[in-house]
Amino acid sequence: MEKPKCPFCEIDHEKTRVIRKDKLVTTILSNPRLMPGHTLVIPNRHIEEPWELSNEEILAVFEAVNYARTRLLDSIATGCDVRQNYRPFIAQNRLKVDHVHFHVLPRTNEDELYRESMRFEKEIFAELTPEERTRILKLFHS
Hints:
Elements: E1 18-21, E2 25-29, E3 39-43, H1 55-75, E4 79-83, E5 102-107, H2 112-116, H3 121-124, H4 130-141
Antiparallel strand pairs: 1-2, 2-3, 3-5, 4-5
């Protein structure tokens, strides 16, 4: 089965969403978006796993993330979430693209994302048990 085309590799055709493009990364407005100002920082080279980024690309990605974060904090946000989701268990679709990218999400206290989902954080987070701590630490130290 042929993989679907990568919408991020084709983003140059849709210049209406491009915020900034340089040699290694492109910064765009996310569409669909979680909130106004939701920005994506995308390496120009098509890679599907974050550990495939070169050191030069990592630096360029985080410089672009910082650029977006700074602009958003100067105007519409009091904080930002920065995320990179690696989910190979989900097929590419409208909401999930198989091309490494970083989300910069402008946040405010009690924003829509908080009201719709993150207010449940206290109920979702669980205390780390001694058994779990021991079991998981063994994974890293074996």
